[in-house]
Each structure stands twice: as C-alpha cells, then as structure tokens.
Recover the amino acids of this structure.
C-alpha cells in the first residue's frame, strides 16, 4: 500500500518539478511548485515525519509560495517575457542537468550497504520528540537562527524602504 | 511498517537526485529571476527529502532538526531575495537576468 | 562574546566600537581553555580565538574606516546592525564543531552580505551585484546542503568528531565522496575560488565600496577559517583524495586571478581579481593541513586583511571625491598627497609580497610550510604567479609618480590619514615581527 503511495507521490512530484521549469507563465510555475511541495509533504508523512509534514505545508505552501505569488502579482510579471533564449542554451542546460543526474545516480549506487537501523521509532517525528532534541542538543543553532532572522528582517526593511532624497 | 525497508533507501536517493538535477537545470535554463529562485527552492527540497529519509533510516532525529533549519533559512533567504528582486524591478523594470550586463569589464 | 547594540545614531559607532573591544577582550579570556559548549556545538580553541579576533579586529578597523563613508548618510544604523549580525555568523564559522552550526553561520553571513551588496538602492550596479550574489549564493547553498546530506547519510551525525571517526574507520561508500565533492564546491563558492569564482569581480565592483572592503576581509577570512577547520578536523583521514583536487584548483586560481588582474584598469575590479589570487594562496594553507598550515593561514589572513582594508579605504576616498576608480586617477598623487601615496605604496607592496612587509613574510612562511611537505611544484607555480602579481601591484605606484596635466588633489582629513598610518604600522610590525602571530598558537 505505502509502496504504491510512494510511487504515485514520486511521479507527481517529478512531473510538477518539470512543469515548474518548463511552464511559460510564472504563475503556473508557482502553482506547480506548490503542488510539488504538497507531494513532498506527503513523502514526509510516509516517512513518519508528521511534524515536518505540517511545518512544510505551513512554511512553504503557506508563507514562501504566497510571497512568490504576491511578488508576481504585485509586479505584474505574468506576461511571457522571455524573448530570445536561444535553443542552443536550452539544449545545453538540459544536457547539463542530465549529466549531473547521471553522475549523481552512478555515484550514489551502493547506498544499500549502509547499515539500516532496524529499530523503527514511529514516535520520532512527533512534535514532542523533536522538541526535546531541538531545545536540548540543538539549542545554540536554534538561537543563532534567530540572529539570522533578525538580520534578514532588518535587511528586508532596509531594502524595501523608499529612498529619501 | 517501515517505508524505507519497503522501497529501499536507493529510491529516495534517486528521487532526491532527480529533483536536485531538475532544480539545477532550471537555474541554468531559465532567465526569469523569480523562476530561478523557485528552482533553488526545489533543490533545497530535494535535500530535505534526503535528510528525512536518512534520519528515518538511522533512527536519528538530528536530520529532521536540520530540515527544520533549512526551512527557516529558506524562508529568510526568500524574503531577502524577493526584496532585492523588487528593488531591481523598481530600477530596471524587468527581472530578466539577461539585462544584468552593467558589470562587465 | 557577541556584541549587538542598538542605540542613537550619533553615538552608535562609538558604542559598537566599545562593544567590539569588550568582545575582543572576552575572546582572549578563553585562551588555551579548549572548552566545547552546548553539546559539542562549538569548541573554542586557540585557532578559533585567533580567527575570531581577526574578524572582530577587522570589523573595528572597518568601523574606523566607514565613519568617513557614512558621514552624511542616515543608513548607518541599519548597516551597522547587519554588520554585527554578519560578524556573529563569521564567529560561528570559526568555532563550529557541528555541520549544523557551519550551515547556520554561513547562511547568517551570506544573507547579511546579500542585503549589504544591494544596499545602494539607487545604483543599478549595486542592485545587480546583490541579485547576482544572491542567486549564485543560494545555488551554492543548495550544493553544500546536498553534500552535508550525503555525509549525514553515511555517518548519521553532524558532529565533526564523529565524522572524523567514521573516516578513519575506512571502507567509505561512494556516496561519501560525492558528498565531499559537493561540500568542496559549496566551500569553493563561498571562498571565491576558481570554478566558482565568477561572482567575485562583478559583486566586488558593484557593491558599495565599504561593503566590498568588508567582503574582502571578514567574509573571506571566515570562509577560509571554516574551510580549514572542516577539512582538518573531519576529513583529514581522506586527505590523499581531496588534496589533489585542491592542488589543481589552487594553482589554477592563482594563475587566473593574477593574469586577469593584469588587464584591469578599474582599481576596484583589480582588487577583486587580486582577491581571487589571494584565495588561491590561502588554499595552499589548507593543502598543508597541519598546525604549520594553520599558522600560515592565520598569518596570511592577518596580512591580507590589514592590507586590503587599507586599499579599500583609499578607494572609498578616491571614489567619493573623483567619482571614478580608474587607475589614471592616481596620476600625480605622489606630488599632491605625498603622505597618502607613501601609505598606499606600503599597502600595495604588502599585497604584492615584497619584503619587509607582512605580505612577504606571510607568503614566505606559507611557501616554506608547503616545501617542507614536499609540494615543490605547487610552490614554484605560486612564486611565478606572484611575480605576475608584483607587476600589477606596482603599476598603480608607478602611476602615482607620473606627472599628469590634470591635477588631482584629494582632500584627506587628519583622522583618515591617522587610519592609513595605523594600517601601515600594522603591516610593517607584522612584517618585522611575524612571530607575534605565528608563535601565538
């Protein structure tokens, strides 16, 4: 059952990722990205990472992609404005991507040999468990993340302000 | 049931590699800065899947914490990136990266 | 250890100055203690103390320099805040012992830099530099993360010590090497080294000059500190494998950076290419990968940061007053501003690596370190490429002594002259007494 779900999600995921790259209008790209992110959240659910699945939907689909949509609408960018991209460039990019994929896949073979931890803790991905780990072991990076956010916030305000002359 | 033992970690590696390559391809191939940004998000998500799969495989929560951090950083990055993009649009009236030719020797 | 102070505009730089000075003091309080904090997230050892003092010191110098740049602007509050946040990121990058901390540190410093590079909002060049830096930087972050994910997949841990244990146990899967290459390319990008260098000249030229100075000193030093730390602490076991990549990359970087710098007429772009070349030299310290390497990296980073902050301070004055950074603007400087010309000459000589300045001893120490490890071929390439460097660093000096029809007279305040004197003093002191830094750790 879950294997079938895995393959359905994977196919949808890859399809929508391809559509992000190849669709002409930016808004379509955004919508496909959101669809792709929902599929990825589905993958997280399959992997028993419930907390991350919810956070993924909230953060990515809820915040980041809305920001994208807002920007596109705000700047009125929906026109198909990509006048002269040469075919050569297209082919080159596809070849590059394909080569990268080939290299990655050929190098990643043999991962089965890594020992899998047989004990599966279905509770690991729950909020309680992750919270304990996050606020004990990973306290310092968490706090430092807040500095990163402060920096990003000040930066966004700095850039967004109108220049007063 | 453990999904990893059913489909194998290799399937997840494949999935992540494919998504990552699609993202890289998009970055190289599109000229619209917003779509490039989305392709970068795709790359980060490929990494997220990989982290969660490994985390479940090793039964180690650190990977999931990392995904949490990546999401946070991605959000900050997108906020800053879109601010720069809007700034650029205000000055140039376009987000096509081919117009960025001011800086050449 | 970390100072973030928000306050009123007038006294803000002073406050930040004293905050940073106290940070420096507390930094040295931890001398030789080797504590690790927060479940082994960071470890304060002498390497990290020396490097974080370099970062804090560079920010103090930057503050002294930028005072004149920001004099009549009210943006200084925002900029100072972001600079302080970036400094926090940089300090994380020098003292981490966990890949998660590395990631957070790199992102903190990068996001601050994206903003600052674009911060001259009316200038198209600055916008463009910001956007380019942002897109390339985010892409590199993706590569770095993919690498970290693969390493995590092998080792089930982010801790550098655990990874080192895994490496020394041997029998590594292929996945590990792929991860290593991806991490390498991410780090190459952040350090501005060859296959991933294209953003450097554009961003350095487009960003506001004060920000470029910050990038060339603090960001570069932090990137190399983290690079060295990562590869010495956790991947030393597979050194034979990645050192070959590094040798090729560093040789190509040195040659390319120096050759490209020769043909530049814009001084800002010249310094950008020369920073690529210097990155190539600093990579050599990582190749050495031992205590000697750490010392030569530190000495080199100190010498390079001091000299380049002086050079950029000069560029700020030049661009502010003449609206150009073309090298012709230097003509006749030795006659109109003799004192400034002498200071600038010392700075350039140090960058070129001519005795008796700090730059020479840094290079000398680095080369002897590598020769003692048997990398003679690489050292020969390095020496040859620094000969090219001598040519283009001396060219501005020659320009200064040429007479020109247009009389360029720069108005220099006493305080900025004092600043240049301070920089020159640091360079000469480090030149005569490099053991101050070398024997410290």
């Amino acid at each position: 059952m879950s294997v079938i779900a895995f393959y359905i999600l994977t196919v949808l995921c890859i399809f929508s990722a391809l559509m992000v790259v190849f669709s002409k209008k930016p808004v379509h790209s955004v919508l496909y990205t959101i669809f792709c992110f929902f599929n990825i959240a589905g993958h997280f659910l399959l992997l028993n990472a419930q907390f991350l699945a919810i956070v993924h939907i909230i953060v990515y689909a809820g915040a980041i992609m809305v920001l994208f949509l807002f920007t596109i609408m705000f700047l009125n960018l929906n026109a198909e404005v990509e006048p002269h991209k040469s075919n050569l460039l297209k082919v080159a990019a596809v070849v590059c991507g394909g080569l990268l994929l080939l290299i990655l896949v050929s190098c990643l073979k043999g991962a089965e040999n890594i020992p899998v931890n047989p004990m599966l803790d279905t509770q690991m991905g729950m909020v309680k468990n992750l919270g304990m780990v996050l606020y004990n072991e990973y306290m310092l990076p968490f706090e430092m993340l807040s500095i990163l956010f402060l920096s990003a916030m000040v930066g966004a305000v700095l850039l967004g302000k109108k220049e007063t002359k | 049931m453990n999904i990893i033992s059913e489909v194998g970690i290799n399937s997840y590696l494949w999935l992540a590699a494919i998504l990552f390559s699609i993202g890289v391809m998009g970055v190289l191939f599109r000229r619209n800065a917003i779509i490039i940004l989305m392709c970068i998000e795709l790359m980060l998500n490929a990494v997220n899947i990989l982290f969660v799969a490994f985390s479940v495989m090793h039964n180690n929560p650190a990977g999931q914490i990392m995904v949490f951090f990546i999401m946070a950083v991605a959000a900050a990055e997108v906020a800053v990136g879109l601010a720069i993009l809007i700034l650029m649009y205000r000055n140039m009236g376009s987000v096509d990266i081919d117009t960025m030719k001011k800086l050449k020797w | 250890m970390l100072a973030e102070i928000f306050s009123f505009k007038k006294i803000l730089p002073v406050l930040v100055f004293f905050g940073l000075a106290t940070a420096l003091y507390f930094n040295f309080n931890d001398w030789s203690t080797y504590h690790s904090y927060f479940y082994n997230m960071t470890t304060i050892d002498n390497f990290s103390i020396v490097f974080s003092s370099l970062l804090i010191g560079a920010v103090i110098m930057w503050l002294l320099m930028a005072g004149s740049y920001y004099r009549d602007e009210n943006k200084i509050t925002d900029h100072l805040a972001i600079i302080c946040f970036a400094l926090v990121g940089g300090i994380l990058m020098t003292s981490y012992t966990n890949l998660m901390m590395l990631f957070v540190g790199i992102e903190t410093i990068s996001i601050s830099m994206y903003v600052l590079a674009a911060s001259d909002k009316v200038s198209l060049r600055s916008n463009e530099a910001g956007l380019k830096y942002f897109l390339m930087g985010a892409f590199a972050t993706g590569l770095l993360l993919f690498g970290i994910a693969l390493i995590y997949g092998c080792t089930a841990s982010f801790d550098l010590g655990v990874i080192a244990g895994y490496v020394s146990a041997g029998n590594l899967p292929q996945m590990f090497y792929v991860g290593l290459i991806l991490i390498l390319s991410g780090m190459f990008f952040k350090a501005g080294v060859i296959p991933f260098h294209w953003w450097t000249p554009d961003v350095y030229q487009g960003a506001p000059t004060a920000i470029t100075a910050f990038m060339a000193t603090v960001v570069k030093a932090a990137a190399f500190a983290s690079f060295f730390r990562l590869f010495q602490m956790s991947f030393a076991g597979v050194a034979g494998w990645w050192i070959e990549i590094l040798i090729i990359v560093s040789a190509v970087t040195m040659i390319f950076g120096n050759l490209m710098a020769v043909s530049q007429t814009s001084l800002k772009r010249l310094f950008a290419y020369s920073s690529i070349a210097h990155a190539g030299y600093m990579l050599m310290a990582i190749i050495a990968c031992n205590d000697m390497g750490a010392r030569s990296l530190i000495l080199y980073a100190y010498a390079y940061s001091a000299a380049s902050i002086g050079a950029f301070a000069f560029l700020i004055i030049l661009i502010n007053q003449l609206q150009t950074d073309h090298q012709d603007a230097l003509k006749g400087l030795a006659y109109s501003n003799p004192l400034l010309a002498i200071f600038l000459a010392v700075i350039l000589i140090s960058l070129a690596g001519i005795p008796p300045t700090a730059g020479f001893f840094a290079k000398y120490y680095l080369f002897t370190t590598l020769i003692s490890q048997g990398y003679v071929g690489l050292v020969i390439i390095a020496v040859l490429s620094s000969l090219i460097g001598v040519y283009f660093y001396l060219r501005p000096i020659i320009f200064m002594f040429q007479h020109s029809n247009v009389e360029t007279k720069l108005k220099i305040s006493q305080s900025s002259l004092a600043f240049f004197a301070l920089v020159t003093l640091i360079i000469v002191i480090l030149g005569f007494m490099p053991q101050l830094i070398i024997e410290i750790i």
Q: What stands out?
A: The longest helix of chain C spans residues 124-155. The two ends of chain C are 20 Å apart (CA to CA). Residues 235-441 of chain C form one domain.
